[in-house]
Amino acid sequence: MNPRKLFVTSCLALVTTSMVFSIRGDIIDALSADFHITKEQTGVVLSPAFWGFTLSIIIGGSLVDFFGMRRLLGLSSIGYIVACLLIIFAPRPGGPVSPYYSDPGFICLYAGMLTLGLAQGLVEAVINPLIATIYADEKTHKLNLLHAWWPGGLIVGGLTAFALTKMMGLDQPGLAPSAATLGWQIKLATIVIPAALFGLRILGEEFPATERVAAGVSTGDMFREALRPMFLLWFVCMWMTASTELGPDQWVAPLITNLTHMQGVLILVYTAGIMFVLRHFAGPLAHRLSPLGLLTLSSILSAAGLYGLSGVSTPFQAFAAATVFGAGKTYFWPTMLGVTSERFPRGGSLLLAVMGGAGNLAVAFILPIMGGWYDKYGAGAAFRYVGVLPVILTFIFGGLFFYYRATGGYRAMKLDARA
User: Fold this and answer.
1) Using one digit for the tens of pLDDT, what is the confidence trace for 220-276?
2) In this structure, what are the phi and psi dihedrals at residue 199, rounded to the nearest 5 degrees?
3) Which among 144, 171, 292, 371 has most CB atoms closer than 10 A?
4) How many helices (H) and strands (E) does the chain have?
5) Is the dihedral of CA 11, 14, 18, 20 positive or negative?
6) What would be the CATH architecture of the domain defined by 1-209?
């Protein structure tokens, strides 16, 4: 087994996963125009990508020990390639079709988006327990390093889409429909490159048994771990951290775009760059502050950033508040996974999958709620209302920090062969 190669392969798989988000967001208007579908119908096309991601990460995480990490990661690689081909070669109608869901092109789009979501979920279902297993003594640090490549992939995808737009003149007025079609097809096809690369890298590679299996913890004990009261508290916290981190993301870019007239993809690259850099310092920070201290600090900064965004009126204020918010949300997701793996190792890949699934479901719930607040009260109120969540989290994580301190300090639980 080659731990470094497995780590790099996991990073490449995560880059592929996040590239999908930035490129799909960039091409969605061109896709809607090509297939003559409304924004509401476009939402129907996109929805299976998100619930497919959630189902895949939860079910895949439960089955990692049965099917093996290499098989599931290989299936994900194939899934990305098949999904891109389904969407690229979907037959395009000559005009609006009624009912729209009877159109073969729409069916191909729907199937392609679903397959994309399933492939993304399988990546998360495999790489989190894989890294927690091969780096059992530094889980929080290595999971933060791994998840630095989530914003890394957003940067790669965003800059790729931006560069192709400029090279092909896709933002020019009077663009021919055929050129617009070729543009989104080429952008989507770039996802195939990293997908094929990480698929090739795992051929013949030895993968370890998960930490739980190696320690002899039964499947029944794994499921029972999910019912522990302390884990249920962390489960609830994951809903709030994910809502804080990912919900406002959809509205920060439009807010700054309206104030500065800068292209949204560049704002995405800016905030992703903050996260990419800061996640490389998670290990020293977690060692100095403890993971609970790091989460408390993240909550304070996130609350300050969101309340700052609720009252901005100039480009400088918007960028300053977005920077504070970006720094605050940086450590939420990977540190929550790190704590889950360190404090509940008997839960194995299942609990990591449950936490990832909870995070994705939280986003599905918070986005329409924030949208309603945005429509009714404006962007400022939407940011201010969501800002209540990190305030609550500050008290929860702060309380847990002092609770662990009073009971000997935070420490990772170890599994041995007789667990």
Assistant:
1) 888 888 899 999 999 999 999 998 887 787 667 666 666 666 666 677 778 888 888
2) -65, -40
3) 144
4) 19, 0
5) positive
6) Up-down Bundle (1.20)
